[in-house]
Amino acid sequence: MKHFRSILSAFLFFLLYFFNWKKQVVFANYSYIYSDSSLKNANSFYKKILKKLSRQAIDFLTYMTPFKNAPNKMMNYPFYFNDLKLEIDKSSCNTINKMKAGGLFMTAHYGNYEAIGPWLCKMGIPLKASYARIKPLFLNKILENKVRAANNESYSIFINNPKNILELIDEGKLFCLIADQDYRKSKPIQSTFLGKPVLCNPIPEFILKHRPNTPIYFCHLKEDNNHIVLFAKEITLQNHDINLIYPQFHQWLEELILQNNEFWYGWTHRRFLGKNSNSSIYSQNIHKASNIT
């Protein structure tokens, strides 16, 4: 199994690198954020991202099997599945137990974020995760019923009305939102991320405005080769100021990126192209990136 995953991962990396998948966008983001550094390292940085992404994409395509076999009791960790070692950070155990009572759970496209869902569900957490629908539409059924499912139940949900989120909170569910920085619909939240202006999803502030006592959690996976550790932390907003939710979230994510910047897959997206952003500057970086080999 170990060699099979490695072979598939290497093959996927070859395809992505050969076809220059998202290369210009990665280079443009690299130039935009690290404007004072030389772009001579951009290609090696791009390779690192693709290697990490390829490995974790194989887990996704194989339906997150290791994480769906994780124990429900913390006393049974560390847990070994083939060549993987799954572990829970000791300082996160109490937080994870609190998450069983529901709340707001925010995470990012950092590391193997898709694996967090089934892992939490296996530990008895009533997770409901919001995802955007993809095309072709028939793939959504596969994602909902095969990939984003655990304990014979899908934790994936598509939100038509924000009021439905409040109903989930009232039912004691843990509502999960992948909080990106390129919200392009109406009434975005303006914030700063990696020193640049970004537009964010207003849903967290909406939840906290209508349910101010909702507990808030941030969660991520730390991966060191075949050793994967689950981290979770509860967030307290100073003076219950909902305007601090994104500054605190971005500070948390920036610290993770500082540790391992190739684990943030936002590099492959135009995260800094919100409606009110200076898109001309970003376009210049796209043009600059097109000249890099």
Question: Could you describe the 3D structure shown?
Answer:
It contains eleven helices and twelve strands. The chain is of the alpha/beta class and 293 residues long. The chain folds into two domains: 77 residues, no CATH class; 188 residues, no CATH class. α2 packs across α11. The radius of gyration is 19 Å and the shape is globular. The relative contact order is 0.17.
Summarize this entry quickly.
With 293 residues, the chain is an alpha/beta fold. It has helices spanning 2-18, 23-33, 42-61, 65-68, 93-99, 116-122, 138-147, 162-170, 203-210, 245-259, 279-289, and strands at 79-81, 84-88, 103-107, 127-130, 149-150, 153-154, 156-157, 174-178, 189-193, 196-200, 216-224, 227-235.
Features:
19% strand
What oligomeric state do these chains adopt? single chain
Query: Which spans of ≥5 residues are poorly predicted at pLDDT below 50?
Result: none
Find the structural class using helix and strand composition. alpha/beta
Sequence of secondary-structure elements: HHHHEEHEHEHEEEHEEEHEEHH
Overall pLDDT level: 89
Number of domains: 2
Give the number of DSSP strands: 12
The percent of residues in helical segments reads 40-55%
The backbone outline, from C-alpha atoms, is: globular
Strand order, main sheet: write it out.
1-2-12-11-3-8-4-7
Gyration radius, to the nearest Å? 19 Å
Largest sheet: 8 strands, mixed
